Amino acid sequence: MTQKSSFELRRRFLQFMAASPALYGFNVLGQSISSPYAPQHVQHAKDAVNVFDFHEVAKSKLSPGHYTYMARGSDHGLTQLANSEDFKKIKLRMRRLVDVRNIDTSIELFGKRYASPILLSPCGRQSIYHPEAELAVARAAKNKGAEFILSTVGSSAIEDVNQAAGKPIWFQLYPDTDWQVTQRLVKRVENSGCPVLVLTVDMPATNREALDRFHRSTNSECQSCHSPKAGVLGKKPMLEGLSQKSRGKGGAFMNWVFVERLKATTSMKIVLKGIVTHEDAKLALEYGVDGVIVSNHGGRAEDSGRSTIDCLPEVVAAIDGKIPVLFDGGIRRGTDVFKALALGADAVGIGQPYLWGLCSFGQSGVETVLDLLNRELEIVMKQARTTNIAQITPSYIA
To answer: In CATH, what number is assigned to the domain containing residue 387?
Structure first.
C-alpha cells in the first residue's frame, strides 16, 4: 500500500468517525450533552417531561451532518458550553408567605402584550428539521401567543410565515454588502407588515470545525440535500430574485454608520442582536436603536468562552431602562428564564429547544416546548413568591 493510499484510508476513517452517531452525542470537550433524564419512550409530544426529552428524539432522527449544524459551536465550543453551564452557577433567593395562587407571566414589548416572556429566536434552514419548517413554528407561536423571529436564511418566505402566524412576525436581517440589495430585502419585509427588524451584528466570521468535517461535494448523504439537483437546502425564499454576487459569509463590513443608514431607511423598529458589552450598549443608545438582544449566536460565532448570562448585567446597566433588553443563549429551564429576567432581561429567546421540538414532532413539539418552559417558569415564580414578571428583580439573585 502506498503512503498516499494509506493517508486516504485514514482520512476516510476519520471522516466516518466524525459522522458517527456514537460520537455526535458528545461535545468537543468529551462531555455528554444528552439529558441526564433521557426518555425511554417518547412517542408523542405530550410524553415529554422536559425539553431535554425532545433533544434525545431529535438526535435520533437527524443525520449527523444536520445535527452538527444545529448543535455544535465555534472552535472548541467553550462559549456554547458556557451559555448553558453558567446558569448553574447562579443561585436564587426564595421568599415565603405570599399568596401565589394567581400567576401572571405576561409582558409588554414594543406596545404589544404577550402571554409569556419567552420568544422564538431566529434559526435558519428549518426544512432540515421538519418538512413544514418555519410554518409549523409560526402556527405554534400563534397558538401559544409567542413572538417568532424569521431568519433571512430561513426555509420559508415571510409572507407565508405571516399567514401561518396570523399576524406579521419579526424578521432577522443578514444584510448584503450591496446596499441596494439590502434595501430591497428590507422594503419587502416592511411591506409584509413586519414591525421589528432584528439586525444580527455578532458574526463577522466564524470557525465551525465540526461542521467542516462534512464535505458536501464528497459526502453522499449530504448530496441528497445540498446538490444543485436536489435544491433542498440551497433554497432561501427571502433571497430569491436578489443578486448574490456580493453576499458573503457574516457581516464583516458593518459598522455604526451602517446601523444609522438602516434606521433611516425604514419605519420598522431596529433591534441589534449580538450586543455583549456595555461599550456597545451605550453606542446602541447613541445611534438610536429601539432595542438590543444580548446574544453570542448560541456560541456558534465566536469562542470567547464568555456566556450571555455573564454579559447581561453590564448591558442592562448601560441601557438603564431606556430601551428593551432581550436575551438568548443557553435557556433550557424555567429557572433559566427566571434568572435572566432577574438580571434585567425584558424577554428571553430560545433556539435549540424549539428546534428539538420541531424535529421531533413538528408543530406540536414546538408548542409543548413552550408549554414546558412556561410551566417551569410558573413553578419557580411560585417558589420565589413572585406573582408577575415585574416583581422578578435582582433581589432574587443570591
So the answer is: 3.20.20.70
